[in-house]
């Protein structure tokens, strides 16, 4: 197993200009968490008012409308846009803003977690609405890395992770059980373990090449995925690096024994689990493998991934 030296976490904090006197633009994805976010809009509005936040709530009718709203409401770096949804909602909005603004500064974002996993919110040290709403008024913000990937001429972005292989197959199964929350991922793992397949991947991580049969590959920006799975325990969202996690060829029994350890971040005890960090990763495979950036199946191998250091600012 490849190991890494411990990493010092650095948090860059800045005060920003949002005050309760201003009207905050809030985009609510009504489909988040199986529609739960949409059903709780009135409660959310009440909680914002109780916290002294003057909010203007926008409810998009489609993913395309969601992205248009983000661009419309986040025209400059002086704007602040709040996002109510999960990791997929957050990724879609950040991607839309990056596509629109190019290299120019982005608006500040406020993440109000209302999805199933909320991985990025957990790395910002909150996973439910109360501390997230409090962050709207405390004036602190933090710049976060964004990962960019290029697949077959298409450019996309992710904040949490991009996976392929077993993890994509698990997501495909879990999508049929979304109403069960985190349990859907566990169902997916057991189902796909019964049909376990390995894939021939070639990883080029800043010039270091690994080529072998693998169960899966995950490119991590944040620490967690799939709810509470601590896939990359030492990842940091503002260090300018991506954590690459892959599992070499492994049998079903070993995989099932290792799976519960992911929730504590001790799965690296299995010698089939490997970790490396890098700024630029290129992945090829013997046949096209579907990519899973922040929970959306989008693109396929071959793929090149790099980092946009501290590209987006969040209230926290």
Features:
316 residues, 32% strand, disordered N terminus, Tumour Suppressor Smad4, alpha+beta, Rossmann fold, 2 domains
Explain the overall architecture:
The protein has 316 residues and is α+β, with helices and mostly antiparallel strands. The chain folds into two domains: 17-138, Rossmann fold, CATH 3.40.50.10330; 154-311, Tumour Suppressor Smad4, CATH 2.60.200.40. It has helices spanning 36-39, 41-50, 63-73, 87-101, 119-123, 129-138, 166-174, 183-194, 252-258, and strands at residues 13-15, 23-28, 54-58, 80-85, 108-113, 140-151, 154-158, 161-165, 199-205, 208-220, 242-248, 273-278, 280-285, 292-293, 303-315. The strands form two sheets. Strands 1, 6, 7, 8, 9, 10, 11, 12, 13, 14 and 15 form an eleven-stranded antiparallel beta sheet that branches. Helix 7 crosses helix 8 (183-194). It starts with 12 loop residues before the first strand and ends with a strand.
């Amino acid at each position: 197993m490849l190991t890494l030296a411990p990493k010092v976490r650095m948090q860059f904090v800045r005060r920003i200009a949002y005050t309760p006197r201003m009207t905050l633009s809030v985009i609510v994805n009504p489909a988040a968490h199986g529609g739960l976010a949409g059903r709780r809009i009135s409660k959310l509005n009440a909680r914002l008012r109780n916290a002294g936040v003057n909010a203007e709530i926008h409810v998009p009718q489609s993913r395309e409308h969601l992205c248009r709203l983000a661009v419309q409401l986040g025209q400059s770096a002086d704007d602040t846009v709040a996002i109510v949804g999960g990791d997929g909602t957050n990724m879609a909005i950040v991607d839309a803003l990056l596509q629109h603004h190019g290299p120019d500064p982005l608006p500040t974002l406020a993440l109000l977690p209302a999805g199933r996993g909320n991985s990025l919110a957990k790395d910002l040290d909150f996973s439910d609405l109360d501390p997230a709403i409090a962050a709207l008024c405390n004036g602190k913000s933090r710049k976060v890395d964004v990962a960019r990937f290029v697949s077959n001429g298409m450019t996309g972005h992710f904040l949490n992770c991009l996976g392929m292989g077993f993890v994509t197959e698990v997501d495909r199964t879990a999508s049929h059980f979304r109403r069960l929350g985190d349990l859907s991922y566990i169902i997916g793992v057991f189902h796909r373990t019964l049909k376990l397949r390995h894939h021939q991947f070639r990883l080029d991580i800043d010039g270091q090449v690994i080529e072998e049969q693998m169960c899966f590959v995950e490119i991590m920006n944040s620490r967690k995925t799939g709810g509470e799975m601590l896939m990359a325990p030492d990842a940091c969202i503002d260090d300018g690096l991506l954590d690459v996690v892959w599992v070499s060829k492994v049998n079903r029994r070993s995989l099932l024994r290792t799976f519960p350890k992911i929730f504590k971040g001790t799965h690296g005890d299995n010698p089939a689990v490997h970790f490396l960090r890098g700024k630029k990763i290129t992945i090829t495979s013997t046949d096209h493998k579907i990519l899973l950036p922040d929970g959306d199946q989008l693109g396929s191998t071959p793929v090149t991934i790099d980092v946009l250091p501290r590209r987006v600012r969040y209230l926290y």
